[in-house]
Amino acid sequence: MNDIRLEKFIIALSFIAVLILHLLIFNHYFSLQEGWWETYAYLVNKGEVINKDFYLAWTPLFVYINAFYQKIFGINFFAFACIGVVAAMIQVILLYLVLREFFYKVSSAVATIFASLLWIVGGSYIAKDYHTYVFIIEFSTLLFLVKSIKNENSKKGTIYQILGILFLVLLFFIKQNVGLVLFASLFVSYAFISSSVKDYFKRIGFLLLFTIIFFASINFIMPFDPSSITDNDSKGSLWTIATRFIFEPLLFKNLIVAFIIFIFILVLKRYFDCICCIYDKTMMKIMHDVASPIRFAMVGAIFIVLGYCIIHFTSKHIYIGFSISIILFIITMVFIIKNAKIYKSKEYKFMALAITAIVYSGTLTSYALDMNTILLCLSFAFAYILNQNLRNFVRAIFLFWMLFIMALIFYSKLLNPYNWLENYQPSIFWADSEASYPQLKGMKMDKKISEILDFFHEYVGKKSKSDKDFYFFNFPIMYLLNDKIPPYKLMTQWFDVVPTKLANKEYEDFINNPSDNVVLYQYSALAFDVHKRFLQKNHFMQEEFHKTMNEWVKEGKYKFIRSFVVPSYLEYAPKYQNGAIKMEVIIQNSALIGENYKKLKIWLDANGIILENVKRDGANIYSSDDLDDVSQSINIGDVVVIEGPIKYVFAIFPQIGVMPIDRSGSLNSINIYERVR
To answer: Which of 105, 126, 382, 659 could join 111 in a cystine, given CB atoms 3.0 to 4.6 angstroms apart?
Structure first.
């Protein structure tokens, strides 16, 4: 009875910890890049048609889910965030239920929470985002299919199988790559769990029949455009997508780590009995010969060293590699060594192949083999380890490692709730501001973020003349917050969700019919470089928008209004706060035209900033190394190099102009322009 109570207490405590973390953070950070899905849904509710009026790179289920929420709650981000917490807890519970089909309750609960927290600590985690709903449907699919295998040849098993196929089709309609790969994996899985060729074709026939029925029904309600798959090169070429896990260095690194750990596990397996014998003899000798105080000191030292190693030497590559290695080990046990405990288990065969398929489907995206795509694999691997008959001290070390990591995650998430490619939100304790937009009431955020949003709330209201007179490039939430419609077909221009063909078309439309007001969310040079490597592309059309605007400002077609530096880690991290930064800035402020550079230099000097260099049309006209007087007048389009304390440079350069798109380092900015008539 005491064991049952302890078991229930551990399980309850695990889930409560995740809930508490969500309740602490859910409305205490807000990214300027949030709101993609809410904006898609807003456009649908405005009568816009997916892939006719605006482009969607995904299958449409999650857009319609958000459109439904907006019908009920209106555009209320606090309500959406609350729904996100509920969805996140449903996701955690479903993952636990999947693991419970294989492992003990406590092992399943601890592994679920451990893997979930590793996913939550990821910089881009937002509970209400589509990843949560992908997991809900993915775990529901696996849960019902596993139950159907356990209850095959029964009415209950048939019902479970039908439900599993239904959720599998829904999985395709919310994330096509996961749905397609998991569907394809069933053709392999059923080959291993079928009792005969006849049984195999019976299973496949059943799968195809209900897939067609459910697919046709759902597609009738919310049709998707096949071109979003067939004509979509936003993730790279077909060859790049299929082989990314081999040729992308970061992914291959994870696989190398996994393979090394896998080999180590096989060695341990081979000499397991010998290792256990040595371990038992050593522990008995220590217990017999070593005094209690010394034993306690030894144990304490081991845990201190372990804690130090966790802090300084572990990384996500270790967790990802370790979890993949365990799945490789399970596959080896099931299909090669044919371990007696799990070889005859059909659900083990199915799950091993399903996890492999899901991990591979993650490599088809631009951010692959990360904590979100590896969540199921990670939780299953750790539950498998915890479920083994481990020696008490080994189990204690393993649990300490997991609990220590979970404690670190909990604390670090409070200090850094969001950081996606330097779209940064500092500590929740600094989130003491609210933006003036009524749709964001109840959402707490850093003051710098609220000030940017407040500016647009006032500025767009003053300049607005129609619902399509603002072009928010890579800044989709502005359409929703300001009740605007994108003037062209793309709602966002982010690299891996925009096919080359559509990016080219949008640029052509932009050139031929420029918007009266242009707001460019300028991503960093680092973001461009990373995606060029990851997607195996030499050029993004997105670059041309920024270059064209710079030319149009120089030619007097557009007037530069101002720029904002998107809050960055550099502004908040103690080791950078007092440091210096060197930046290139293209002068675009028309108020500076005709002024002498000497005057600008004096102004910069007064703000603790050095004017190091000035270039005009690629030629130097001033260098701080020269002792010559700064006699040149300022022209729009001149490129200046300035250096000084980070906080001063970030305050000054937006008043001068914008960063060159190819030399912006890791900084993002928002550049605002108005057409000159």
So the answer is: 382
Give per-residue pLDDT as tens, 292-306.
888 788 878 888 888
- What's the CA gap between 172 and 162, in Å, rounded? 16
Do 414 and 533 belong to one domain?
no
Residue 50 and residue 219: Cα distance in Å, rounded?
13
Predicted confidence band at 4 (pLDDT cuts at 50, 70, 90)?
confident
> In this structure, is residue 519 part of a structural domain?
yes
Residue 371 — pLDDT band, cuts 50, 70, 90?
confident
Distance of CA 673 to the CA centre of its chain: 30
- Give the number of domains in the chain: 2
Per-residue model confidence as pLDDT tens digits over 223-263: 888 877 777 788 877 777 777 777 777 778 888 888 999 99
Q: Are 343 and 241 in a shared domain? A: yes
In a domain, 424, yes or no: no
DSSP state letter for 632: P
State the Cα–Cα distance between residues 422 and 649, nearest whole angstrom. Answer: 17
Smallest CA-to-CA distance from 494 within 587, 655, 367 is with 367
Handedness of CA 249, 251, 255, 260 (dihedral sign): positive
Q: Which domain holds residue 648?
A: 438-675
CA distances from 225 to 54, 59, 173, 229 (A): 12, 8, 11, 8
Amino acid at 628: D
Residue 155, C-beta contacts closer than 8 angstroms, at least 6 positions apart? none
CA neighbor of 85 nearest in space, from 145, 132, 49: 132
Residue 198 has pLDDT above 80, yes or no: yes
Q: Is residue 477 located within the same domain as residue 592?
A: yes
- Strand 470-473 versus strand 517-522 pairing type: parallel
Give pTM, 2 decimals. Answer: 0.93
The verdict on 484 and 408 lying in the same domain is no
Measured torsion, CA atoms of residues 227, 232, 237, 239, in degrees rounded to the nearest 10 = -50
- Average pLDDT value for residue range 5-26: 89
The pLDDT, as a whole number, for residue 629 is: 61
Name the nearest CA neighbour of 249 among 536, 495, 500, 494: 536
- For residues 361, 362, 367 and 372, what is the CA-based torsion angle, rounded to 10 degrees? 150
On the question of pLDDT at 428 being above 80, the answer is yes
Which residues, 6 or more positions from 546, have their beta carbon under 8 angstroms from its beta carbon? 520, 522, 658, 661, 671
Give the mean model confidence (pLDDT) for residues 515-539: 91
HSE (CB half, 13 Å, CA atoms) of 57?
Answer: 22
* 636 found inside a domain: yes
104 in a structural domain: yes
Query: 608: left (phi > 0), else alpha (psi -120 to 50), else beta?
Result: left
Is 140 found in the same domain as 271?
A: yes
Other beta carbons within 10 angstroms of residue 396's beta carbon come to: 14
Domain C-terminal end among 419, 446, 481: 419
Q: Work out the angle at residue 233's Cα, subtended by the Cα atoms of residues 229 and 235, and round it to the nearest 5 degrees.
A: 95
Pair 110, 390: CB distance under 8 Å: no
Q: Is the same domain home to 588 and 493?
A: yes
CA-CA distance, 234 to 228, in Å (whole number)? 10
pLDDT in the model for residue 343: 66
Nearest to 659, CA basis, from 560, 518, 543, 524: 524
- Could you say which of 371, 387, 419 is where a domain stops? 419
- CA torsion sign for 655, 590, 626, 607 is negative
Q: How far apart are CA 242 and CA 318, in angstroms?
A: 24
Q: Are residues 448 and 522 in the same domain?
A: yes
- Amino acid, res. 166: L
Number of neighbours of residue 483 by Cβ within 10 angstroms = 13
In a shared domain, residues 267 and 296: yes
Query: Rounded to an integer, what distance in angstroms lies between the CA atom of residue 658 and that of residue 585?
Result: 5
pLDDT of residue 630: 66
pLDDT reported for residue 388: 86
Q: Which pLDDT score, from 0 to 100, does residue 469 have?
A: 94
